[in-house]
Amino acid sequence: ETDVLCSCFEGFSLNKDLVSCDRINPCLTDNGGCHHICMFENNHAICRCEKGHTLKEDGKQCEKIDPCSEKNGGCSQKCVSVDGEVICLCHSGYRLTHDGKNCERIDPCEIENGGCEHVCLAIDGEASCSCYPGYRLKINTKMCEDINECSEFSNCSHICNNTLGSFQCSCKPGFQLHSDGRSCFRIAEELVSHCKKDNGGCEQKCQEDSKGPICSCFKGYKLKDDNKSCGDVDECEIENGGCDQMCHNTKGSYFCSCLSAYRLLEDQRKCDIREDESDLGPERGDFPEIEYVAYREKQRKKQGTLSDTPSHLSSTGCKPGSFGPDCVFNCQQCKNGGYCSPDKFSCICQLGFTGILCNIPCPQGHYGAECQSRCHCRKEELCDPVRGHCFCPYGQDKKGRCKTGCPQGKYGEGCEKRCPKSCPTRHCHGVHGFCICPPGRRGTKCNKQCKGHTYGSNCQMKCRCLWNNTEKCDSLTGQCHCRKGFTGRYCEISCDGDLADCMLQDGVPVVVCEEGFYGRNCDRPCECVNAISCDIVSGECQCFPGWTGRRCDKECERGFYGEKCEQKCTSCIHCSRVNGECICPPGFHGSQCRERCPPNKFGVNCKHRCKCSNNATCDFRNGYCLCSNGYTGSRCEQTCPSGWYGHQCTKRCRCLNEAQCDHTTGKCICLPGFMGQQCEKMCESGKFGKNCSQECDCDGNRCDSVLGRCICPPGRTGNKCQSGCPMTRYGPGCSFRCRCRHRATCDAYTGRCICPPNWTGSSCQVRQRDELS
Question: I want to staple 631 with a disulfide (CB 3.0 to 4.6 A). Which of 194, 376, 627, 722 is the partner?
Answer without folding.
Answer: 627
